[in-house]
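WARN retry 2 of 3 for item q-0093 after timeout on previous attempt; input resubmitted unchanged.
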Amino acid sequence: MSELLPQELRILVAVAESGGFSAAAAALGLTQSAVSHSVRGSEAKIGTVLFERGRTGAAPTPAGERAVGHARRILRLYEVMGAEARGAGRGAPHRDTVEGVLRIAAFRSAALHLLPPALDRLTARHPGIRPEVRVVREIGAGAAGEVAAGRADLGIATLGVAQGMPPGLLSGVLVEEAYSLVHPAGHPDPKALPLMDWDENCGSYTRTWWLAQDWIPRATVKAEDDAMVLTMVGRGLGMAIMPELSLREATEAVDITGLGPRGPVRRVGYVTTPESASSLAVRALIRELRSESS
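OK item q-0093 returned
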């Protein structure tokens, strides 16, 4: 297979992100025919169809999704190469200056509680780093999917969940956090209340624990996210089983009861690609995250 050139990679990404050849051409300052010709050439080099064409635009095929993810990651390597080379040129002898944009994806409670102190220390030590944090829902591919798709250099994700992790990524555990029972303060019988839950609260962590219980909630009420669950519990509308990171926002309106040594535990960690794992900025952030969780 012939190698794709950087411009061909940029065109694949632009078509995927804009949803069509015309929009990609406008974004890149090219003609539609040039974009179409480039995509056909890329498909010929790779040996498969990358986009489904239609009257409303173009959408990546499964092969196209994979190719576009790799394209983003390769283009990102060009950016990192330039930033690290410039930093090495400006640094003291035998010491690199770490600089440039660092793209991070994280689910809400991790972005609120794990990242800020780590980023404070990171930017104090390396003022040339410019973090860009995107909060993503930890549903489906979640933060790990953002890394695999080339939209983030590092993700803060839940590890070991049922949907698994995209292949080829590296990960490490940062926090193992216990779940607790949270219920309205002073309630005489919290187990009689409906269970408050939210889609990101992956059931794979708590499923075995629930099977061992001799009580079953009389109803389950879904909320948008963990913050809404806490608010609803505080108003007396139900109880919940929640991990420690989510409970850092708890107020005096709720009581928190541990579930004992056999209670469910959630693993939260970093996810990155092999190529990003060797970059100076990602390595520096992982050090700060590990320092924060130790």
